[in-house]
Amino acid sequence: MFQQDELVPPPPPAEIQYTGEYSVDPLGEASFRKLCGQVPRVLHRIVAMSWRIDRRAVLLLLACPVVTGAAAAVLLAATAGAMRPLLGAGSVADRLYEALPALVVASAAAALTRVAAAVATYAERLITPRLTTEADTALVAAVCRVEASAYAMDGFSDRQEAAEMGVIRTHVMVSDAQRFLSALVRMVTAAGALSVLNPLLLPLLLLAVLPAGVGAVLTARVDYEIHYANIADRNVRGMMRWWSTNPKYGDEVRANSMTDYLLFWHRSLSDRCDRRNLAAAPRTLRISLVSSVAAGAFLLATWGALAWLAATGQIGVALAATAVVAVQTTLAALSQVILNGAALFHTSLYLTDMQAFLDDAEAHAPKRGNSAIDRDTEEIRLEEVVYQYPGKDTPAVNGVSLNLRRGEILAIVGVNGSGKSTLTRLITGIYLADTDPATIWRQTGLVPQIFAQWPLRVRENVTLGQPRTHDDAPVWDAVDAVGMREAVEDLPAGLDTLLAREIFGGAELSGGQWQRLACSRALYRRPGLLILDEPTSQMDPRGEHQIFEQIKAIAADRITIVITHRLENTKIADHIVVMEHGRITEQGRYDDLVHAGGTFAELLALSQDR
Ligand SMILES: Nc1ncnc2c1ncn2[C@@H]1O[C@H](COP(=O)(O)OP(=O)(O)OP(=O)(O)O)[C@@H](O)[C@H]1O
């Protein structure tokens, strides 16, 4: 893949050795018996999940196996009834005539089995799409609702990736459960009939399918083990795939000749996953071979026993013929029980991951108390605030005290990594507060340093989070406030234009225009607390001037915080704080700080030294 003149291949992607709290392989801890015991629990969970979606379809689904079982019993009894005359004495026509009623009943039972199977498939189709949607929505909601700090938790995204597999598995789990139940009922019926014919045949038959069952469960274990080992690589590959193929980054990828390396990266991760899969192939082959040989030997013994019983006259020819049908039916049903049981077991592993993730996400949803913040907050006071990110040795914010008053503009400046953004996150209550965060967020407007470019229409890009009215006038006010009217009017459908170049009919904005839109979103909210983190970093001087004029014009009604590296912009602030290593090291008004000879003066001098 690399050009020939590049002799040294690039280093491969880092191997992620995940050793966190959640790195325990659930299979390593569960015994074979314990795992088999999970099947009833999984069935119960599937029924409960489906019940919430469509009770009638569930009842239909549960009724079908009963019908199938009854039909199988009738079929066997009718077969036995037909065998006696068919294998008896007399002309062929007489024997057929005598067997006719039993043959009609057998045909009707067979037809009923088919109808039950068709109805079961119909019921399953009523449930599955909605079940998948429910599971998918629950997962997305869980991730969106956790405390933002949960994203920094050990292995959060890997466990999310594992949970995604549970969602994918919902596509097949209802049909697996339905097939399992129906095969189980058929098996019990046929096995009952077989025991009546001769008690010796059933244990032999059970022995014949048991190896296949053990083989199927062991294979499912191997599959899950590989899935588990591949999670981290698949997760990284998925992220890299998104970044590599996203048209937004297409220019950067091409102009910096990243394509080859990104493809190499993608290929290396895929190869790594493939190697694990390939290494498992001989194991699954061994499992299949051993279980097939054992199953074949036991099956041979079953047929041998049947032949011996017939040869020694212990059962009649008619009974022996019925026993052949019963053995075939039981065998087919048993194999289905085993195969679908293994599939359910397989599903249970992924569902357990999904449930564990959902439970964990629920535990990390904001539960901070019910006190609400009044609208039009007059003052926010911070006293010796400290915040340390998980896994970090030093606090990002370290002993900060501040008074923010309504009507005032606070500017925060400082070098990269000094804790400015973290401080604003604390203030918006994203990370800390004893208050219901929704009541805080309702009053805040935030323009983050890295903002989302939503693939929505212009209108929703402005109103997202707060669609107040069907009236476009306030939307245009917000658009005007950031100087975007002309640009929006030039778009093919004005406010209705979809801002996603990738989608047919979509349009694209420039970086600065996107940033103006992010500002208009915050202004549209008319928040009591307005936080702008480098809000004009991509704007031309005219846009920047307009935004800061706007901030000044609306400052009287709110608490405003601006983070900026362009120190000239801090002239609009009533108070400026300079942060270093998480602490406030200087503060005052612009003119004071310019002459104070500290970090502010130094940074300002550097910005003017060209
Ligand atoms: N989500 C996070 N998880 C862990 N550490 C973080 C996270 N966000 C920031 N940090 C760390 O916290 C410290 C302060 O970061 P912060 O983003 O608050 O700095 P900043 O002053 O806003 O920097 P910049 O000027 O580059 O925007 C840095 O050391 C950074 O590595």
From TrEMBL:
It comes from Streptomyces nymphaeiformis. Pfam families: ABC_tran. It is a multi-pass membrane protein. Residues 380-606 form the ABC transporter domain. GO terms for cellular component: plasma membrane. The keyword Repeat does not apply. The lineage of its organism: Bacteria, Bacillati, Actinomycetota, Actinomycetes, Kitasatosporales. Keywords: ATP-binding, Membrane, Nucleotide-binding, Transmembrane, Transmembrane helix. The keyword Disulfide bond does not apply. The chain crosses the membrane at residues 58-80, 100-123, 204-224, 285-309, 315-339. It is found in: Cell membrane. SUPFAM superfamilies: ABC transporter transmembrane region, P-loop containing nucleoside triphosphate hydrolases. GO terms for molecular function: ABC-type oligopeptide transporter activity; ATP binding; ATP hydrolysis activity. This is ATP-binding cassette subfamily B protein.
